[in-house]
Protein: Oxidoreductase
Amino acid sequence: MTARIVMKLKVKAARLATPSVLHLTLVHPTRPALPAWEPGAHVDLRLPDGKIRQYSLCGDPQDLSAYEIAVKREDAGRGASLWAHQALVEGATAHVSAPRNNFPIREATRHVFVLGGIGVTPGLSMVRKLRAEGAHVAVHFCARSAAEAPLLAELSAACGDRLATWFSSEGRRFDPAAVGPYAAGSVLYVCGPGRLLQAVRDAAGALGWPDESVHAEAFQATLDENFKPEPFEAKLASTGATLHVPADRSLLDVLREHGVTMPSSCELGVCGSCVCGYTEGVVIHRDAAISTADRQDRIAPCVSRARVSVTLDL
Ligand code: FES
Structure:
């Protein structure tokens, strides 16, 4: 786990932004200001069992008196969101890391966003900043309905006439081709579930967007439930040691078990903290953190595996 300051923050306000999304305002119990952050940043929320989950900051980066996060309740998830919805009531304590930004605003003359459901959270603070700077912005927000679209009022206020909403239950299912053809100097940000990311990447590719102009933040691992893990061997380039990775263990777990210090955060293939290089082998990429171009030599050992063997640049 990466070493990051963990603060005990107090829940100042907890309200349901939609029937399944809890919007939390967190403050320090004694200090007036929290560590600064940039739009797109997230914090780690530490659970009682020591595990962590990442949540994008969705408030105003100029206002350091509080952090705002939004937690979508995943009834079929691994319990973290259910715990947050039950335990993080007003006055409760939340163990939260200092912010880190894996999804920064890029240099561009035109910024196009596709935000799906809870994926609105990083986009909201990014759009606010870009609009305040007078940048050219276009935002597509997809959800089942307006009632199920978290932070819709806040996003509308930030976007003005630059917002297009796509509510499937109201007959407007998102068409990824709506991102339009690539124009030089444009950048495309996509935040939401893995299937939205893939659909937008595919459409953007067909519309001439270069890979490096598309930036994605997954809000859900894209793991295929039918995937059957097989054992494989992992060789460490620095020592030549060969480690056996059984079918029921992750490469990350096996590396740590053999004394290799590896950072990690989400352990879901989403955040990119554990990513390392590899030099040989056929990797089965199962993450949503590494770009297509980088998959030739980068692997996320928390979820990805190899066919037969892989040589890691460790
Ligand atoms: S720990 Fe987040 S991608 Fe591996």
About this structure: The mean pLDDT is 90. The CA atoms of residues 27 and 176 lie 38 Å apart.
